[in-house]
Design a protein that fits this description.
Helix 9 runs antiparallel to helix 11, helix 9 packs across helix 17 and helix 16 packs antiparallel against helix 17. By secondary structure, this protein is of the alpha+beta class. The chain is globular. A hairpin with a 5-residue loop joins strand 2 and strand 3. It is built from 19 helices and ten strands. It folds into four domains: 139 residues, Butyryl-Coa Dehydrogenase, subunit A, domain 1; 104 residues, Butyryl-CoA Dehydrogenase, subunit A, domain 2 (Beta Barrel), CATH 2.40.110.10; 151 residues, Butyryl-CoA Dehydrogenase, subunit A, domain 3; 180 residues, Up-down Bundle (Butyryl-CoA Dehydrogenase, subunit A, domain 3).
């Protein structure tokens, strides 16, 4: 019988919106063990010495080289970091696996090859394969002997994955499933040996299968892509392809469980990969800004450039805080699930909302950093002879991978409401208490908040209130039809994401200050202050748009009055703060976390 996770002893997924957390409760990069740091450094050295010099050759579609690099990654244990030792992996914790993903994010399009192998290609077998299938495939996948791919999308079914047309039927002798159909956008498609394929048994039971390359399985020509040119992307054609019945993943008709749960893992790993890319882009942008002279001085001395470097650093640092806070939640839940694979997957599913937040936030932060990198490089940023051009092209796909950002934005409030209706998240009582506060506001207090980042802590608390107020108002008006109000849902998601990021940054900065002193934490405190004051303005603007779409008249005026009260703040000198943040990186001539 499968082990269960007692989530009552853990942080409930999505509860950040209605509960306060304390610095000692969250994982931050400052908590990494020496072993975890060594794993990160091993990965970084492999990427910088073996992979990055090979990127130009990979972009010429040298798939033999891609396989060689996967084998080398396998020799270092990087492919099987989170795979149990009994199947040839290292059995490492989730944090170590995420640190590997982060540092592989430095490797341009090889990160896609690596992610398809270790994530969506391998994990369905690990979590849903039969014992026979696990022992047959996993040891050879973690060494890189076999290359894996994931075949879900079709020409007519992208975000709507369950609309797939590929079919599977049981052979007359009951020994094989016979698959027919065509899949699109298959990463590693041109040279993979093993595919996780989704098809409908008897035309209606959506199911997952392990399919080996063999008779009837062919791939189309390589796609001519905007970016990630060093990764293979092809169509996959299945014509009466046979796969043994023991290669069924999970149960017939339960393929959606595989597809959606594996995407949760993929989303937070993708966020970590984006983080690694952002750190490298910022590092190179700072170095270039110091080297490039105009008007007799380095461009890094100009305020306009400092503002860009500072904002790139802020989003990178806040993104990192948010990624590892989420990984810490997953780590605790997975640890509580012992060794049972399905229980581990349920533990990860608990934080599906947070995984979607990470995916959207980090992919968009990454795009921002890439865009500003090009701008700092100027005309050279547009040249393929300089790193900014490739970074810009490669970053764009991340907003489409693992479910588009639009889909994930709608999932964020949707999953919270679903959990509330199931009684798994006390969202409704919290919303009712908030509406009582909105309708009967208490007398204003003139007492100043005390403690480190007190004003920002109040802003984060109020950002959560705004998100909850907007979500509750929309849910009350539209009821079951809320899922059709996509613009409103996406606006609410933006508020929720900023609230989560604000709190994550505050918790990390306070934790650093508590351990190292406020002087040592000064730069982190500045980054947190700038981020929070910018974020509350975004929250206010987004909430105005959403509230005007869901209410009118006296109700709208009441809600807008509450919004003004919640988002009221005294501006800080963000110009001086950004200059100070940028100066630290410019002086070091590198990215510093």
């Amino acid at each position: 019988m499968a082990a269960t996770v007692d989530l009552k002893e853990l942080v409930i997924g999505g509860s950040f919106l209605i509960e306060e957390r304390h610095p000692e409760e969250v994982l931050t990069p400052e908590d990494f063990t020496e072993e975890q740091r060594m794993i990160a450094e091993t990965t970084r050295q492999f990427v910088d010495t073996e992979v990055r010099p090979a990127i130009p050759q990979l972009e010429k579609h040298d798939w033999h080289l891609a396989r060689t690099l996967l084998r080398k990654a396998g020799e270092l244990g990087l492919l099987g970091a989170n795979v149990p030792e009994e199947y040839g992996g290292l059995g490492l914790d989730q944090t170590s696996g995420t640190l590997i993903s982060e540092n592989v994010g430095r490797s341009a399009s090889f990160a896609v090859t690596f992610g398809a192998q270790t994530g969506i290609g391998m994990l369905p077998i690990l979590y849903f394969g039969t014992e026979e299938a696990k022992r047959k495939y996993l040891p050879r996948l973690v060494t890189g002997e076999l290359v894996a791919a994931y075949a879900l999308t079709e020409a007519g079914s992208g975000s709507d994955a369950l609309a797939a047309k590929a079919t599977a039927r049981l052979s007359a002798d009951g020994r094989h499933y016979i698959l027919n159909g065509e899949k699109m956008w298959i990463s590693n498609g041109g040279f993979a040996d093993v595919f996780v394929v989704f098809a409908k048994v008897d035309g209606d039971k959506f199911s997952g299968f392990i399919v080996e390359r063999g008779p009837g399985l062919t791939n189309g020509a390589e796609e001519h892509k905007m970016g990630i040119k060093g990764s293979s992307t092809t169509a996959l054609i299945l014509s009466d392809v046979k796969t043994p019945v023991e290669n069924l993943l999970g149960e017939v008709g339960k393929g959606h469980k595989i597809a959606f749960n594996i995407l949760n893992i993929g989303r937070f790993k993708l966020g970590a990969s984006c983080l690694g890319g952002m750190k490298l882009m910022l590092h190179e942008a700072v170095r270039y800004a110091n080297e490039r002279h105009q008007f007799g001085q380095p461009i890094s001395s100009f305020g306009a450039i400092k503002a860009k470097i500072a904002e790139m650093a802020i989003r990178t640092w806040v993104g990192e805080a948010t990624v590892y806070r989420t990984v810490g939640l997953i780590e605790e839940a997975v640890r509580a699930s012992a060794k049972d694979g399905e229980a581990k997957l349920r533990a990860i599913e608990e934080y599906a909302t947070e995984c979607s937040i990470i995916k959207v936030m980090l992919s968009e932060y990454c795009d921002y950093v890439a865009d500003e990198m090009v701008q700092i490089y100027g005309g050279y940023g547009y040249s393929a002879d300089y790193p900014a051009e490739r970074a810009y092209r490669d970053s764009r796909i991340n907003r489409i991978f693992e479910g588009t950002n639009e889909i994930n934005r709608m999932l964020i409030p949707g999953m919270l409401i679903k959990r509330a209706m199931q009684g798994r998240l006390a969202l409704l009582p919290a919303a009712q208490r908030l509406m009582d506060e909105v309708l009967q506001p208490s007398a204003p207090s003139f007492d100043e908040e005390e403690g480190l980042l007190a004003a920002e802590r109040k802003l984060a608390e109020n950002a959560k209130k705004v998100a909850l107020m907007t979500l509750g108002t929309a849910a009350q008006k539209f009821m079951q039809a809320l899922e059709d109000e996509q613009e409103v849902l996406m606006s609410i998601a933006d508020q929720i994401m900023d609230a989560y990021a604000m709190e994550s940054a505050i918790l990390r900065a306070r934790k650093i200050a508590a351990h190292s002193g406020e002087e040592a934490a000064a730069r982190y405190i500045e980054m947190t202050r700038v981020f929070c004051h910018d974020a509350i303005e975004r929250v206010e603007k987004s909430a105005k748009t959403a509230l005007a779409a869901v209410s009118e008249g006296d109700e709208l005026r009441t809600l807008l009055a509450a919004l003004r009260r919640f988002t009221k703040h005294t501006p800080i000198n963000a110009v001086a703060a950004r200059r100070s943040i940028a100066d630290a990186l410019i002086k070091a001539n590198r990215y510093i976390d």
